[in-house]
Amino acid sequence: ADEDRLIRAQKVLDNLPANERKTIVQIILQETSLRDQARDSGVSAMKIQRSVKRGLGSLSTALREAQLSD
User: Fold this and answer.
1) Is-above-0.90 flag for pTM?
2) If you ran DSSP here, which 8-state letter would residue 30 be given?
3) CA distance 23 to 2
4) Cα separation of 12 and 20, whole Å?
5) What tens digit of pLDDT does each residue of 8-53 get?
6) Cβ atoms of 34 and 27 closer than 8 Å
7) What angle do CA 67, 52, 66 make, to 5 degrees?
8) I want to staple 45 with a disulfide (CB 3.0 to 4.6 A). Which of 13, 15, 29, 34 is the partner?
């Protein structure tokens, strides 16, 4: 069951827009700071924060929908 959830999460993550996927991977999974990510990307930390929020919302919605379809 846990393995199925991980596979589903990876598929959902893979289907996110590239910028949201990259931001989530770097901020959440690799624990890069918002400021470091912003500096490396050439955008504001606020823009990175919004991208994380949008991406996590999309991820949450897609995972809920996948769970309901099981």
Assistant:
1) no
2) S
3) 24
4) 12
5) 888 888 988 898 899 999 999 999 999 999 999 999 999 999 999 9
6) yes
7) 10
8) 34
Give the whole-angstrom CA distance, residue 12 versus residue 62: 6
- What's phi and psi for 36, nearest 5 deg? -65, -45
Token reading at 64? 């809920």
26 DSSP assignment: I
Contact 63, 12 (CB under 8 A): yes
Separation of alpha carbons 40 and 26, rounded Å: 11
Cα–Cα distances (Å) from 12 to 16, 19, 30, 38, 46, in that order, read 7, 14, 18, 24, 24
Which class for 55: exposed (0-12), middle (13-18), buried (19 or more C-beta within 10 A)? buried
